[in-house]
């Protein structure tokens, strides 16, 4: 058989490219965990993070210390949960992550036991829209009823709470956020923790005020009109003086 070098390369090149891409995502998940740990949202082995690449998901391994996570402690699975790369078992919340990907087609999922979010989840049935920035998460944040970690009941409860939202609290447990990218899912987790902290401080001083539906709509309209959240070049000095 006359096999050319080109034929050999064509056979292995796609696999190499795929492997390289997944290596980058495994490193990104490890970086995200270390950032969340530095921000105080992750402690010990509690929590899990994942990112989706096509029909593959890079997800933290069970039992790993997340604030010190390395890429080899991130496992790659397919959308059925079968391991395709890595030597460690994935997190016990694997079905929760896969459920979010299947139902909402998102790009990344973050689950933490962040202290402020967990405290709020022990008291409220939902976190009201105490600040307009919560609109970035969809508005009020629902609290999914308590269920044992790693169970189908917990996964389904959280998926329901996430309907129309990019964040949910888990009663007496923690929080879940998702986003189109891993960076966005992490930013959503940080935003949720900040909002829970604002609520706790406000509630300690009195009865917090919340934004009603009309006020929320006004914020959304203003944000759209001003392209809120993006940078814009300043007008030339001569135009500013006119």
TrEMBL record:
A matching Pfam family: Aldolase_II
Keywords carried by this UniProt record: Lyase, Metal-binding
SUPFAM superfamilies to which the protein is assigned, alphabetical: AraD/HMP-PK domain-like (SSF53639)
UniProt-listed InterPro entries: Aldolase_class_II_sugar_metab, Aldolase_II/adducin_N, Aldolase_II/adducin_N_sf
Protein EC: 4.1.2.17
Protein's UniProt keywords contain Lyase: yes
Enzyme class: lyase
Domain of life per record: Bacteria
Class II aldolase/adducin N-terminal domain span: 27-200
A single MF term (Gene Ontology): L-fuculose-phosphate aldolase activity
PANTHER family referenced in this protein's UniProt entry, alphabetically: 3-OXO-TETRONATE 4-PHOSPHATE DECARBOXYLASE-RELATED, FUCULOSE PHOSPHATE ALDOLASE
Protein name: L-fuculose-phosphate aldolase
Organism in which the protein naturally occurs: Streptomyces rishiriensis
């Amino acid at each position: 058989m006359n096999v050319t070098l080109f034929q050999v390369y064509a056979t292995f090149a796609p696999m190499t490219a795929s492997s390289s891409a997944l290596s980058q995502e495994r490193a990104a998940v490890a970086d995200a965990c270390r950032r969340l740990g530095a921000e105080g949202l992750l402690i010990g082995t509690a929590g899990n993070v994942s990112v989706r690449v096509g029909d593959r998901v890079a997800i933290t391994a069970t039992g790993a210390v997340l604030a010190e996570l390395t890429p080899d402690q991130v496992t790659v699975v397919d959308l059925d949960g079968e391991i395709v790369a890595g030597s460690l078992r994935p997190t016990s919340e694997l079905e929760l992550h896969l459920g979010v990907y299947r139902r909402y087609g998102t790009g990344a999922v973050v689950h933490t036991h962040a202290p402020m979010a967990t405290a709020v989840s022990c008291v409220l049935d939902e976190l009201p829209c105490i600040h307009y920035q919560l609109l970035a998460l969809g508005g009020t944040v629902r609290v999914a009823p308590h269920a044992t970690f790693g169970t189908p009941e917990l996964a389904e409860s959280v998926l329901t709470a996430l309907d129309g939202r990019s964040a949910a609290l888990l009663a007496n447990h923690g929080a879940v956020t998702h986003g189109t990218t891993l960076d966005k899912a992490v930013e959503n987790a940080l935003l949720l923790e900040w909002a829970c902290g604002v609520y706790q401080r406000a509630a300690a001083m009195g009865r917090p005020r919340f934004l009603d539906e009309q006020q929320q709509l006004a914020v959304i309209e203003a944000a759209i009109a001003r392209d809120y959240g993006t940078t814009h070049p300043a007008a030339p000095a001569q135009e500013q003086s006119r």
